[in-house]
Write a structure and sequence with these properties.
nine-stranded mixed beta sheet, mainly beta, flat
Length: about 475
């Protein structure tokens, strides 16, 4: 919980806590590769075989949100001819040194990536070309043990074929999800270039010796040609052109360039989908066009930031009429929309025509009996170096901050990072787990608003954070007035 900005008015005592926890059935036949089973009527097109050791390359996440112990690994492959990959098998096991905390694999994320410009690592900036969530343990079956590691074979049928192009470097990533310390990894083998890439908890990328054990298959059925084009050609790019097995599924993907947005997929001038990822059954040759439109960016800010929330900001097609809204928090009222310093409307629901990149400001003002505490405007100011408990007064209301759990501190940045939702000083919990701060007000209040962010350095909204506010009257914890 960062920077409590309380707008006066609920009970006398408020306790604020946060907790951050940052197929159709087919006949299977055995493949004598140490990789397990594959579906009939398929052909092996690429494989790495197990080297017989107990070594694994860790590649697992702590479900559901990940942890600092997570690791991932990628291994490259190149095919000699254009091929539609329909099935993947792999071998993996659990690190025996972590067995006291080991839990079964609940599901896998399987993804195929393009290569970076140098060809020596995946294109991390672009992300995966295709990604699949298994939702299960991918037909896990015992595959013997070696060097103290128990190994298992896994098998996954792609929901839509992946059109791999000849002589192109791709990277396969298989990541397991577990309910405790992530200890699952890919078995190490041979058959590639004897190296793979991994990322560790500190987000660094490293090259590891040995190949990951996996195999790729293609269906032995007649194919159709799917062609994906971009219109206009500078509006974006497409992925998915290639040959696909008849009776299977294909996916084409549209990615807009800067200044453009994806509109829809058309065939012979008729719209067939407005989903940038379009999956369809393959019944014959098709030519699909991804249509892109020129866009502009509408930015909307609140002044002051804690005064209210807005909607409508984002990337919009040029010429679009966008509805925007401003909603004040308790203790504040909406005043007007402002653009370039000029008031535009006093209506909180407003329409704006997109003709250029532009910024609108929703101006809010506090009610006369509202007090805002942000460690800066209260008296005296509380900043880095000050310890809690602390007391501040603003607009006739006094609040005392004290800590019940964790060692809260006052900060003005987090490792050089400043959350966008506030400036100046804010309260920072000293634990990744349960943190409780208690606020005592000098008189009854009727509403309380708390501004916070997750303080995750990679983004402000991608880590689930639970904030619980409980109010009490007369400086006692019984009875609870509201939660």
């Amino acid at each position: 919980m960062n920077r409590p900005a309380s707008h006066d008015r609920i009970g006398q005592v408020h306790r604020i806590g946060s907790s951050m926890q940052g197929i159709a059935i087919r006949v299977l036949v055995l493949v004598l590769l140490g990789l397990g089973s594959r579906v009939e009527a398929t052909s092996l097109v690429y494989s790495h075989t197990h080297n017989g050791t107990g070594t694994t390359h860790l590649s697992s996440f702590w479900a559901p949100e990940g942890s600092d112990s997570d690791q991932e690994t990628w291994d490259g492959f190149t095919l000699a001819a254009n091929t539609s990959i329909t099935e993947i098998t792999w071998k993996g096991g659990h690190d025996p040194s972590l067995w006291p905390w080991s839990t079964p694999v609940s599901s896998f994320t399987i993804s195929i990536w393009g290569s970076g410009a140098n060809g020596f690592n995946p294109n991390f900036a672009a992300g995966p070309l295709a990604s699949y969530e298994s939702g299960n343990a991918c037909a896990e079956s015992y595959a013997g043990s070696a060097g103290g590691t128990v190994f298992y074979n896994y098998h996954y049928v792609l929901p839509a074929a992946f059109p791999a192009q000849a002589n192109t470097v791709y990277w396969l990533q298989v990541t397991a999800w577990q309910s405790n310390v992530p200890d699952w990894g890919m078995a190490v083998g041979t058959g590639g270039n004897n190296s793979c890439i991994r990322t560790a908890a500190n987000h660094s990328y490293q090259s590891l010796p040995g190949d990951n054990v996996f195999a790729l298959y293609s269906a032995d059925t007649p194919t159709a040609t799917i062609t994906a084009l971009a219109q206009p050609s500078n509006g974006g790019s497409t992925f998915g052109s290639g040959s696909y097995p008849l009776g299977g599924f294909a996916t084409v993907t549209a990615t807009a360039n800067a200044g453009y947005a994806f509109l829809d997929w058309t065939e012979n001038g008729n719209e067939v989908s407005n989903d940038f990822d379009y999956t369809f059954p393959v019944t014959g040759d098709r030519t699909l066009v991804a249509n892109f439109v020129s866009t502009r960016v509408l930015s909307i800010v609140s002044s002051p930031p804690m005064g209210g929330t807005t909607t409508g900001a984002g990337i919009h097609p040029l010429g679009a009429v966008v509805p925007i809204t401003a909603t004040p928090v308790p203790g504040y009222q909406f005043q007007f929309w402002q653009s370039g310093g000029v008031p535009q409307s006093t209506n909180p629901v407003f329409e704006w025509t997109i003709n250029s990149n532009w910024t609108l400001t929703a101006v809010f003002s506090p009610f006369p009996n509202t007090s805002t505490f942000d460690f800066d405007t209260g008296s005296p100011a509380v900043g880095p170096g000050n310890q809690l408990p602390a007391t501040q007064t603003q607009n006739g209301l006094t609040v005392s901050y004290s800590t019940l759990m964790s060692s809260w501190s006052i900060q003005n940045n987090i490792s050089g990072f400043l959350p966008q939702v506030f400036s100046g000083n804010f309260g920072f919990p000293g634990s990744l787990y349960d943190n409780v701060m208690e606020l005592h007000f000098s008189q009854p209040v009727t509403d309380l608003t708390v501004s916070y962010c997750t303080a995750d350095l990679a983004g402000e909204t991608d880590i689930t954070t639970q904030i619980r506010v409980r109010t009490f009257a007369n400086a006692t914890s019984d009875p609870v007035q509201s939660t």
